[in-house]
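Supplementary Note 2. Why include the ligand at all?

Several targets in our set were suspected to adopt different conformations when bound, so apo predictions alone were not considered sufficient. For every target with a known small-molecule partner we therefore ran a joint prediction. The input for farnesyl diphosphate is given below.
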Amino acid sequence: LYMENQAESFIGRLSQSSLAYMRRLLFRVLSVGPIPNHLAFILDGNRRYARKWKLGEGMGHRAGFLSLMCLMKYCCELGVKYVTIYAFSIDNFRRKPHEVQGVMDLMLEKIEGLLKEESIVKQYGVRVYFIGNLKLLSDPVRLAAEKAMKATSNNNSCALLICVAYTSTDEILHAAVESCEDKCSEIRSLGRLQNGEIGLEKYGAVSLANVEKHMYMGVAPDPDILVRTSGETRLSNFLLWQTSTCLLYSPKALWPEIGMRHLVWAVLNFQRIHPYMEKARKQL
Ligand SMILES: CC(C)=CCC/C(C)=C/CC/C(C)=C/COP(=O)(O)OP(=O)(O)O
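The joint prediction is reproduced in token form.
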């Protein structure tokens, strides 16, 4: 029995390493063309996956987290510099309380797991950002998120941007308010704003660059590809400001079913439209 177990684990390791070898080979071939700098994902279909396979409640989200880590590994190996995920929208807080609690508990558990030695984040030197209105999170989740951001702040191989308590409209509103406040304090510091005077009209409006500086997503360039799983083609209030030139891809697979073939297909399509995308970006 001992010999059998040893042989089985040897074969397991061998097939793992030959798979990794073939993956590296495939990525080498893909790297002949341009590699996207930034991939964004809407993780749709976790509950449907749990229903499809008659799993317990919350198991779809657990499976979804495993897919995320796998994909993160492939992205790091391929040389993608930024991966953004829509993990929880502000609208998701309107779901049934026990469901919200279930996702938050999972999130807390997984954020703590990200900092462990065996995690993809540690192994590949990933910098983690939490993007969104973090004040809306419970104290334990927010503190864990802040701890993960601090602990990974020196990592620079790739960045994982986790959008939680996020919607685009909230991000844009936040950036607009912050930019107006910047402008007002700039005018006040010049000592020119009189009582009752409308500074923005007289001293110039806020600049686009300033608004973008205050976007939660300001830490990353605009995404090149946005993938929404489960065949849905809506943006659902995700990265509306940042996706004007990006490629949209909506495979039929539910999020926990996403795999390397989807990534490769997305990259091949990106390479096909890359010249047009570059041209469109120059015209912005
Ligand atoms: C730390 C970290 C990154 C954790 C991420 C955990 C994770 C996988 C969160 C996904 C949450 C979510 C609401 C997904 C959407 O699927 P859905 O619930 O809307 O499923 P449906 O589309 O089938 O209804």
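The beta strands are 38-42, 82-89, 126-131, 158-166, 225-228, 247-249. The mean pLDDT is 92. Comparable summaries for the other entries are listed in the accompanying table.
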